[in-house]
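Notes, p. 3: input format for complexes.
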Amino acid sequence: MADSVILVTGGTGLVGSAIKHIIDTEPAGSRFGKRAGERWVFVSSQEGDLSDPAQTKKLFEKYKPTHVIHLAALVGGLFKNMKYKLTFLRDNMLINDNVLHSAHLTQTKKVISCLSTCVFPDKVTYPLDETKIHLGLPHESNFGYAHAKRMVDVQNHAYKDQFGSNFTSAIPTNVFGPNDNFELEGSHVIPGLIHKCYLAKKNSTPFVVSGTGKPLRQFIYSYDLAKLFIWQLREYDDVEPVILSVGEDEEVSIKEVADAIVQAMDFHGEYTFDTTRADGQFRKPASNKKLLSLMGGFEFTPFDKALKDTVKWFVENYNTART
Ligand code: NDP
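Output follows (323 residues plus NDP):
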């Protein structure tokens, strides 16, 4: 019998499948590889709809996890978030409450829930750090999703204060990599642009990027993020969240992203920016100081290499990718 059962909710998504990849491919027993006595279980919504309390309880009774990495969420890009605010608020609040409550009832030893830098206030001093989550209202474009995610931090503190629970959270910046959602409209910026550029090349049509291309973002490769989650699971025991990100000096503009996609896709057609579309927040640099001081350093995959590998994965898996 396994000494620890690590249940990964949202285990089939972008981040969950990356954790599975790292656990399966890193040397057994190494810092990020599978350890003796561990059983990793990766679940999708097919094993249970976590917005439903009874199905969530059943899932916990079935696997009896000792640890949970809670990734499952209703996730989407800027336009989807603006259009479906209540759905993003309600679904995510239900999912998070059911997971934390079931973990509490079954005496799960540790839960790491996944937040997002969207939780931070719109009007705040930069860089973002772990102390600034509740200092003001989030940006109105994703206020449903952001409020639902913020509540997880509130719940974690309440569980700790009332029951001594070891529930904590991670705050990744924008993630990209294999198995992302590459839909043209509802997805995040990198997978959406990769798909658009792929079609522009295939159909000999212009590659049109929404917005001015000027906003800046910090992007983390899903395989790097997976290692950081595994570190947090094994080596971090505190209720306060940790920002999982590349350094704040590694911001990339949307234009630089689009340029890198054009190059990786080997696209030579017309390439323009549709400046009538919304840009979202201009920038929101986040500090990874806490992470690096706790971990003692970490080698991130260079952005261009990670992007090239993601484009390669998309082209090779076009028929089965989420498009
Ligand atoms: P994906 O959309 O790729 O995957 C979502 C996962 O959640 C899928 O496995 C999905 O299962 C599962 N899921 C969704 N709804 C339910 C439900 N009601 N019940 C059970 N499972 C459900 O998401 P990501 O991997 O991109 O995101 C993982 C986490 O990281 C999320 O919490 C997200 O908020 C956070 N995050 C993501 C960022 C990003 O840039 N992608 C940035 C910052 C944070 P199924 O496929 O069966 O629907």
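The mean pLDDT is 95.
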